[in-house]
Design brief:
Layout (H helix, E strand, L loop, with lengths): L10 H34 L2 E3 L4 E3 L3 H8 L2 H32 L6 H9 L6 H11 L6 H8 L14 H12 L6 H11 L3 H9 L4 H29 L3 H6 L11 H10 L4 H25 L12
Antiparallel strand pairs: 1-2
Helix pairs in contact: 1-13, 3-7, 3-8, 3-10, 3-12, 8-10, 10-13, 12-13
């Protein structure tokens, strides 16, 4: 059987070439600014590098971090506590706001704008604002507690007492619950067909029953998505701790990325900092894989029931 010759000037080949040329700027940027630095950091994580000398040390950076560096474990512990406390509160809070803003009321768009505005405030500006709010002497939060009968001497010293430092940052994290997570929940709520609620109403279901047996099960893919993004984002908390406390008092707010930053740009231990970055990558990868594995037990997709 004769084989037809390949037409090198076919329209499909020309379109593929044009597509490749169009994405070439992105590919160059990805190789130079993303993949290249990642490969360099992986190599540096096996080296002792302080901007003056580069020495291959193998897995020594990883060994020292995991066995002889107490601040590594302290920063990881602080970050884990922050993640465990802030992520569930953030999910519940953003979902509650999304449920409220999904109601058909007058001025709905205006309310959505008001709740979204705090997330647009730059991180440094919001940190400076919360420095005033959490001030133990004349801060707005402690002043509000005194209005409810709490003596001023009994009010928490939010950023000065190690016991209250992480709760202060968790409280601050709720400042942005009306941001992207709320928008994603709103999109998920609007994607639920009204026919489910109409059928439940005919059957005499109450508002709480509709929430528990229709809204939440149908919203589990969105909850799962926000959960993953929330954990990844919370593990990278940095700006607020750097601006407000610089890791204090007594390393109570020394979060993982802040300690990584110190090793890289204050102590100039770039090899150690690169190793910390890859440990964080591995930890987040493992957590994400575990979440995907166990999501089959509680995440329900509408297509599975069609």
């Amino acid at each position: 059987m004769a084989v037809a010759p390949v037409n090198r000037n076919s329209p499909g080949r020309w379109q593929a070439l044009c597509g490749f040329l169009f994405i070439m700027p992105w590919l160059v940027g990805f190789l130079i600014f993303s993949l290249g630095p990642m490969a360099a950091s992986l190599y540096l994580s096996f080296c002792k590098y302080d901007l003056h000398s580069l020495e291959w040390v193998g897995a020594e950076n990883y060994r020292r971090l995991l066995t002889t560096d107490p601040l590594f474990w302290r920063s990881l512990q602080n970050t884990a506590i922050y993640v465990v406390c802030s992520v569930p509160l953030g999910l519940v809070g953003s979902l509650a706001i999304a449920l409220l803003l999904n109601q058909s009321v007058r001025g709905q768009r205006l309310f959505r704008t008001f709740f979204y505005l705090p997330s647009l405030v730059p991180a440094v500006a919001s940190s400076l604002l919360w420095l005033w709010v959490l001030n133990s002497e004349n801060g707005l939060l402690n002043y509000g507690l005194t209005l409810f009968g709490v003596p001023h001497r009994s009010c928490p010293r939010w950023l000065e007492d190690p016991v209250w430092t992480i709760p202060a940052f968790v409280l601050m994290s709720l400042w942005g619950i009306g941001g992207a997570r709320m928008i994603i929940f709103l999109a998920g709520l609007q994607g639920i067909s009204e026919s489910y609620y109409e059928a439940a109403h005919i059957d005499g279901a109450s508002t709480w029953q509709k929430l528990l047996f229709i809204t939440l099960p149908m919203l589990t893919p969105t909850i799962f998505f926000n959960l993953i993004l929330g954990i990844i984002g919370s593990f990278q908390v940095f700006t607020s701790a750097y601006v407000m406390t610089s890791g204090g008092p007594g390393n109570a707010s020394l979060f993982y990325v802040l300690y990584l930053f110190r090793n890289a740009f204050e102590y100039f231990k770039l090899g150690k900092a690169s190793a910390m970055a890859w440990i964080l990558f591995g930890l987040l990868l493992c957590l994400t894989v575990v979440q995907f594995r166990y999501s089959r037990r509680w995440v329900h997709y509408e297509a599975e029931h069609d």
